[in-house]
Amino acid sequence: MIQIAPSILSADFARLEQEILKVETAGADLLHIDVMDGHFVPNLTFGPPVVKAIRKVTQLPFDVHLMVDKPEEYVRPFAEAGANIITIHAEATPHLHRVVQSIKEHRIQAGVALNPATPLCVIEEILHDLDLILIMSVNPGFGGQKFIPSALKKIRRLKTMLMQINSPALIEVDGGVTSENAAQLKDAGADILVAGSAIYGVVDCQAAIASLKKV
Ligand SMILES: O=C(CO)[C@H](O)[C@H](O)COP(=O)(O)O
Fold first, then answer.
1. What CATH architecture is 3-213?
2. Is CB count within 10 Å lower at the N or C end of the chain?
3. Predicted ipTM?
4. 63 is known as an active-site residue
5. CA 73, CA 48: separation in Å to the nearest integer?
């Protein structure tokens, strides 16, 4: 079954604990935490102290998406704060393999994210080292954007690449995910759907998660 990772970027930050517990009770599989530095993307969000604080309120695995320059400087602080998966952007470092190895040295799962304009070939040589590949289906920085349809073709091609090397790595999709495109994303090969507005922007988040899962 497809896994659902609500993005707390779209949560009400004044009620963060309740917003996290709400999606945990509603059947979320992971909690997606968008870390933005105001450099790699034009927005600012959470640092390790916030991740450490919310680690105490939920059992959900933390899927930490680092939209930051120099990700190598932040692997350790986020690992120590309680991340279960750390995903870095291929565009953010010239030393992708080294940073992936450093995530694994913390005994947590390593992911690489690709912006819409970044081709799959940038991860081809290290695909066997990855636990997760995050296909961005919007340009990162903000929730509530429109899904970029070319992501579907990219997911299909990535799925083929993973099958060719017998890799168990998961494909995650982030940006503009809704109950309307969830089935197409699953058919293309997605294993995890990240959703912000489609979950936190509706009254009944339990129904929203159920409808994303039932595809
Ligand atoms: O990484 C992100 C933005 O950079 C968010 O996780 C993503 O955009 C989710 O929001 P929505 O589901 O509203 O598109």
1. Alpha-Beta Barrel (3.20)
2. N
3. 0.96
4. no
5. 12
**CA 10/CA 12 separation, integer angstroms:** 7
Q: Which of 29, 34, 37, 131 is catalytic?
A: 34
CB-defined site of ligand 1, < 6 Å: 7, 9-10, 32, 34, 65, 138, 140-145, 174-177, 194-198
Q: Is the pLDDT of residue 215 over 90?
A: no
| Structure-derived torsion over alpha carbons of residues 76, 166, 139, 39, reported in degrees to the nearest 10 | 20
Contacts of 88 (CB under 8 A, 6+ apart): 66, 71, 75, 96, 99, 100, 103, 111, 112, 113
pLDDT digits (tens, 9 = 90+) for 199-208: 999 999 999 9
Whole-Å CA distances, 134 to 18, 45, 155, 209: 27, 19, 10, 20
Atom of ligand 1 nearest to the CA of 142: 3
